[in-house]
Amino acid sequence: MLRQSSMTLLRTQRPFTSSLKRVHHRSLATHVEHTEPGVADPAAYCLNMVRKRDYESYLIGASFPRRIQGAFFALRAFYVELASVQDTVSNSMIGKMRMQFWRDAVKNIADGRPPRHPIALALHEASKNANVPAYHLRRIIDARDAELHAPTHLTLESLTAHAESTSSTFLYLLLSLLNLSSSSTFSHAASHLGIAQNIQVLLRALPYHASKGRMVIPAEVTARHGVRQEDVFRMGGDAEGIADAVFEFATVANDNLLTAREMLKESGGDGGQVPATAMPVFLYGIPTRDYLGRLEAVNFDAFHPSLQLQDWKLPWRIWRGRYKRAF
User: Which of 144, 150, 166, 253 has its CA at 20 to 30 Å from residue 99's CA atom?
Assistant: First the structure.
């Protein structure tokens, strides 16, 4: 290419030095510097990603000890990245390739050879400064991979198992960050909270999924209330039986939330309060409780416009929950 451009320039009787200047301005370094956004500052990339795409987690992250906040945002960015694969790929094969990338990334991070991806680099840094069990990361990857082929659930049991492998497993990672994973009480409470949180997220996103032709409430629940999926996709909250199905599904979330709360109270610590060391993890109960309360206020109409708005009181609720050590 250099020879061809030089010959052309000579034929037009332009000085040879001008061609050298052109080649110099098109140096490869100029292009390489911009191919991986976020690589220069992986921690900032993860924090900004969580702030933009998971505001509740952004608020909760500030409650973690400063020395591991970077690890928290790296883990949450990883979680958000995997959760979004289903909606960002054109077919399941591409999604599986993305999942395989993350399987390889987790292995290479453990070997000290993270790929040049900002989240992977941030996870590598986190693993050097905190306890980040790779088997929890792999469990989340496997669950999201399975979701590509089976995005809906026939039974509550199937959905609960999926929640255990995603939302609950993420909370186990947070317990590990805080060196609290050896506590069976915390782990069992986190399991129930993860299930409640997962259902809350699905209910909040029900209008979005319905617009894509997906029903996120398990079929056994919708069948009990005579819900026809096609009616939900066309009529939203006006579909027959959908409010009753939402009520039953929300009740499962609320029962798990109450179970998590009672388990921590019965542990005998601090007069029923959540131990201060574990409170950052269980702050996830506050957005869950908040949404379920708002859903009840509109008589379990998950399509009500008010539920699509961010609760402006949420930052204050999280702050208050942190200091009252309750959710």
Answer: 253
Please report, to the nearest 10 degrees, the dihedral formed by the alpha carbons of residues 199, 205, 209, 214 taken in order: 10
Instruction: Check: CB of residue 177 under 8 Å from CB of residue 134.
Output: no
What CA–CA distance (Å, rounded) separates 84 from 157?
23
Locus of tokens 């709360």: 261
- From first to last of its 327 residues, what are the pLDDT tens digits of the chain? 434 433 333 333 343 333 333 333 333 333 333 445 688 999 999 999 999 999 999 999 999 999 999 999 999 999 999 999 988 888 889 999 999 999 999 999 999 999 999 999 999 999 998 999 999 999 999 999 999 988 889 999 999 999 999 999 999 999 999 999 999 999 999 999 999 999 999 999 999 999 999 999 999 999 999 999 999 999 999 999 999 999 999 999 999 999 999 999 877 556 678 999 999 999 999 999 999 999 999 999 999 999 999 889 999 999 999 999 999
Q: In terms of C-beta density within 10 A (0-12 exposed, 13-18 middle, 19 or more buried), how is residue 281 classed?
A: buried
> Three-class SS string for 192-217?
HHHHHHHHHHHHHCHHHHHHCCCCCC
DSSP letter string, 88-140: H-SSHHHHHHHHHHHHHHHHHHHTT---S-HHHHHHHHHHHHS---HHHHHHH
CA distances from 197 to 140, 204, 279 (A): 15, 11, 16
Judge whether 282 and 289 are in contact, CB under 8 Å. Answer: no
Q: What are phi and psi of 63, to 5 degrees?
A: -85, -10
